[in-house]
Specification:
It is built from 19 helices and two strands. It is mostly helical.
Length: about 575
């Protein structure tokens, strides 16, 4: 997908979701913690969906068809709308919709534009009375469409752009490097625009207009996408990596009673096992056989009738190659590291959600007339990332490299661990700031409980979280891409989104658990719907404590981890003895 098209889509998606928490509270009349839970579930589902999208893309449709076949049937329009004129307008728009995320945006925009699709407003207070079952059905439908769209677009957008370059030529490689630079630069800039300009329009001008602009930009993105259809390079699907993983596990189970040859010598054992393995369209780096998870090595034991005359496996569910087995081992080694990243992302998701709630009870003015929208505070975190990464690459990495001698200054696992430590610091700072905000609100707050404290007091914790993300999140992306085999790159990107999904679901569980366990008879819970009554600072400290435990767990996993292609320690010792 061209960088310009991706920028429009990023503005559309971020513009609809960045201020979603405020929209649910102010326009739908949801209780604050219920809205926070819904945001977490929606975020988690959106980030889990790319795993399914990656499977469908690799196994069946290919990247282009996955990007274009996320569409919705006509009955959604009739389920969502009552006014016949609006129904006809949506039917006209539907002819331009190749992505299912587009109709999701239309429905969500209509909830802002059509009063009948939102909860009624009380006459005396002017506040929404709360959503009914029908209102929630419309809202959930729009969110479901957005989830399906994210599942198709997120895992395929960047790889589809990479497919347009011929990496076998010098010109293609130079163009690909430029594409990556433009892709990440424009995407980040688009997110900043969405969280500032679009959120400001939603919060200060009009919710229908604030949702309508991203919807129009999404339509423009679709038009641009199809404008280049005759120029695109289409790479056919190469088969799902999940089937290969399952084949290795089944073959190892079926041969579990066999004895491995040379059980303590990886080099000799590899010569006695099945090694014929090649892929049609992917250049795969050969992985040496390891003795870790050696029960999987039995899948490569050759028995009578397992091989064809040309030396290939007669049945992949009975005989797998050493290469295929080692690829499965890569996935098994990475899984514990991946799990540790979820707690770190819990801190990130809770900062974004609760910081918006905190700012709604603080002074958000910059100057006499301008007021910062609550949903725009996350821009501080993004700007910290944008400013810190060049500083890290140009100054910190050369300094660390001269000391450690390691390419990149520190290892990929050390980079993730540093991010976890900084995330813990940010949660402690967040707890201290929240206590100050709450004390100020109780002492000096007016009838609405708003503290005179400036919302910029939230900047330090958001900056720390941005630095933590620059270490941990970027480190995770690089770690997955380097440690996964070449043909698993789509899965690598999906795994990162699954970390975000796990963090969102865990955040929802933590909110429910804390509300139930801390809200005694007649007392308020830490996460009360009135943030001034609750103790959000205690909740921040709880997440910090979980982060400490997670960091210790990660350090154990990192100590035991063996990087892809690393030979057995016993073989290294043999080579050293042979030299001397």
């Amino acid at each position: 997908m061209p960088p310009g098209n991706e920028a429009f889509e990023r503005v559309a998606t971020s513009g609809l979701t960045a201020n979603f928490m405020v929209y649910l509270v102010e326009q739908y009349g949801m209780r604050q913690m219920a809205a926070a839970t819904l945001c977490n579930v929606f975020s988690g589902t959106s980030n889990a969906a790319p795993l399914l999208g990656a499977f469908v893309s690799d196994a069946y449709w290919g990247r282009f068809r996955t990007l274009t076949y996320a569409s919705v049937t006509t009955f959604v329009s009739y389920l969502c709308l009552r006014d016949s004129l609006l129904t006809k307008a949506l039917m006209i728009l539907r002819s331009f919709l190749p992505h299912v995320s587009r109709p999701g945006m239309v429905v969500l925009t209509l909830t802002a534009a059509v009063p009948q699709l939102r909860p009624p407003v009380a006459e005396q207070s002017g506040q929404p009375l709360g959503p009914s079952g029908a209102h929630l059905a419309i809202l959930f439908l729009s969110l479901g469409l957005l989830v399906l769209g994210a599942g198709g677009v997120r895992p395929c957008s960047l790889p589809f752009g990479v497919d347009q370059f011929d990496r076998s030529t010098e010109q293609g490689r130079r163009g690909l490097n430029s594409f990556f630079n433009w892709y990440y630069s424009i995407s980040t800039a688009a997110t900043v625009v969405a969280m500032t300009a679009v959120v400001y329009i939603q919060d200060s001008v009009s919710w229908p207009l604030g949702f309508g602009i991203p919807t129009a930009l999404m339509l423009l993105a679709i038009i641009l996408f199809f404008a280049g259809i005759r120029l695109y390079v289409f790479v056919p699907p190469d088969g799902s990596v999940f089937s290969g993983v399952l084949q290795a596990l089944v073959a190892a189970f079926r041969k579990r009673k066999l004895r491995l040859p040379a059980p303590n010598d990886a080099v000799e054992q590899e010569t006695l096992l099945y090694s014929n393995h090649a892929r049609k369209s992917t250049v795969v780096t050969k992985l040496p056989l390891t003795l870790q998870f050696r029960f999987l090595n039995k899948a490569a034991i050759v028995c009578e009738g397992d091989m064809k005359e040309d030396g290939r496996s007669a049945d992949p569910w009975k005989l797998c190659s050493v290469q295929q087995i080692e690829e499965v081992k890569c996935l098994m080694r990475i899984a514990p590291i991946w799990a540790s990243g979820i707690i770190c992302f819990v801190a990130l998701t809770q900062q974004w959600t609760l910081a918006a709630l905190q700012s709604m009870k603080m002074d958000r003015h910059l100057g006499p007339s301008f007021q910062i929208p609550p949903g725009s505070l996350g821009t501080i975190c993004l700007m910290a990332i944008v400013l810190f990464i060049p500083l890290y690459d140009q100054i910190l990495v050369p300094m660390a490299t001269s000391i450690t001698g390691v390419e990149g200054g520190i290892t990929l696992l050390q980079r993730q661990g540093a991010g976890m430590a900084i995330a813990i610091m940010s949660m402690v700072v967040a707890g201290l700031v929240e206590k100050k905000r709450r004390d100020s609100a109780l002492a000096h707050g007016g009838a609405d409980g708003t503290s005179p404290l400036s919302a910029m007091w939230l900047a330090p914790q958001l900056c720390l979280m941005g630095v933590a993300e620059a270490f941990n999140a970027v480190g995770q992306v690089e770690f997955y891409n380097r440690q996964f085999p070449e043909h698993m790159q789509t899965l690598a990107g999906s795994l990162f989104h699954c970390s975000l999904a796990g963090a969102s679901y865990l955040s929802s569980f933590l909110i429910a658990f804390v509300r139930k366990s801390t809200g005694g008879p007649g007392g308020a819970s830490w996460l009360d719907d009135d943030i001034n009554v609750g103790r959000v600072d205690y909740y921040y400290y709880l997440i910090a404590a979980l982060g400490v435990g997670n960091l210790l767990y990660f350090m154990v996993c990192a100590h035991l981890y063996r990087y892809k292609g690393t030979p057995e320690l016993e073989d290294v010792c043999k080579d050293i003895k042979a030299v001397f």
